[in-house]
Amino acid sequence: MNAKVIFYSGVGSVTGANFLLEINNKKILVDCGLIQGEKFAMRENREGFGYDPVSIDMLFITHAHLDHVGRIPKLVKEGFKGVIYSTPETMSLAELILEDAINILEKEARQEGVLPMYEVEDLRKTMTLWKTIPYHTQSRFDNFSVYLKDAGHILGSSMIEFTWKNEENIDRKILFTGDLGNTPTPLLRDTESPSDADYMVMESVYGDRNHEPKDERVERLKKIITDTIERGGTVIIPSFSMERTQVIIYELNKLIESHSIPSVPVYIDSPLATRITEVYKASTDLFNEKAQAEIRNGDDIFNFPRLLFTASGEMSREIDHSKLPKIIVAGSGMSVGGRVIHHEERYLEDPKSTILLVGYQTIGTLGRHLIDGAKTVTIGENKIKVKAEIESILGYSSHKDSDHLVEFVEMGEKTLKKVFVVMGELKASTFLAQRIRDEIDINATVPDREIEYELV
Predict the structure, then answer these.
(1) Is the domain of 344 the same as that of 411?
(2) What domain count does the chain have?
(3) Sign (positive/negative) of CA torsion 244, 249, 254, 258?
(4) What is the span of the domain harbouring residue 139?
(5) How many CA atoms lie within 13 A of 428 on its CB side?
(6) Nearest residue to 220 via CA among 389, 345, 425
(7) Considering only Cβ atoms within 10 Å of each terminal Cβ, which end of the chain, N or C, has fewer?
(8) Confidence of residue 32 (pLDDT cuts 50, 70, 90)
């Protein structure tokens, strides 16, 4: 049986996952995400996929981040009529993420004088095509089977294993990792092992660097917040609405209840994060044992004194009227939109305040400019001088770092024939591929876009 994989986007870039697996002429997509951050991203997102959406038989989704799900309604709008599969949690979260994305895309379209890439009707149609597969269930199709493992990245995130028989009637398996969690995480279970895959398509966001030790990240968070409050300033934390915000709430809950930091107002200024937090509260069975034990012992891990979720735009604007030291957690995580932009515009020129970046910042984003040391940035039509403290804690990333990515591959070295390194800046992907070749002696490559790679 013939099999091949083609990479349409998500190569040489952290965002835009979109891979095509063909097994005996059955066309199976894995992820269909937005390209984000780069100046050309909007134009490229609007272009064709490189394949006919009508020809695709089914789509599997690793997790609900926008760079993995953001073009699904466009795929449906352009003729895809197959079935979409994911874990139940990914389906629930993706619907929220895509509803929010429609508003952003409509705003961008108005600014560019073009029609939106997709609209509410396309999302509604998308959700009618969606079915769910729980973890650890072997799902059989015409000439292959699928098995989902916990990736430990965000709630519901999965690694997807496809198994088929080759022309010699021997079982072959390819594992699409999606994004791999920064295990151990405060909330979620550990990333499961890759077991006996022959081929692997793996992420490389942090393929060329390592995070701080996990025991240091809480100490750094505590120090940054305490120092800023003592100066009488405001801590702004640009944060992804999904997973990162819930982890930050959890950490602040512990720090405030243990009196490790002063009790100041903490604003979660993101309607999307508020809705997603409710999904997390309903899915605690997927949390790790430590978090579940805290809940069983009566700790409301997503609530503490002076925590406020701001629903309306008016409530968001009122935050700045308070002269007291405070903490504002707002979307988006890379400062490319959302309510955090307003707060950054307000506080970047305040030397008493701190912008705390707690995740990867894609090239071209405001967050990347700040982390690279820009002295002046542009927000809207305004030039803003950067006088606030700019701090980062990479240990709160939801992605494995370089050493742990190599360790993950090493767990599957007995069977792995080839590793395709994707979803990273080119230098990160190239560095990781070289490490895998040198340290584990496994064939690893950064694939070219739209080139067929045979799986024998």
Answers:
(1) no
(2) 2
(3) positive
(4) 3-209+398-454
(5) 25
(6) 389
(7) C
(8) very high
Q: Taking a C-beta distance cutoff of 8 angstroms, is the pair 31, 423 a contact?
A: no
Q: Is 126 exposed, middle or buried (0-12, 13-18, 19+ CB in 10 A)?
A: buried
SS3 327: strand
HEC sequence for 69-125 = HCCHHHHHHCCCCCEEEECHHHHHHHHHHHHHHHHHHHHHHHHHCCCCCCCHHHHHH
The token pair that represents 380 in the structure block? 């809207």
433, 444 contact by CB (below 8 A): yes
Which residue type occupies 368? R
153-208 confidence digits (pLDDT tens):
999 999 999 999 998 999 999 999 999 999 999 999 999 999 899 999 999 999 99
Looking at the structure, do residues 369 and 407 belong to the same domain, yes or no?
Answer: no
Tell me, yes or no, whether 59 and 183 share the same domain. Answer: yes
398-409 tens-digit pLDDT: 999 999 999 999
CATH number at residue 437: 3.60.15.10
Q: What is the CATH number of the domain that holds 231?
A: 3.40.50.10890
One domain, residues 185 and 67: yes
How far is residue 180's CA from residue 202's CA, in Å, rounded to a whole number?
Answer: 8
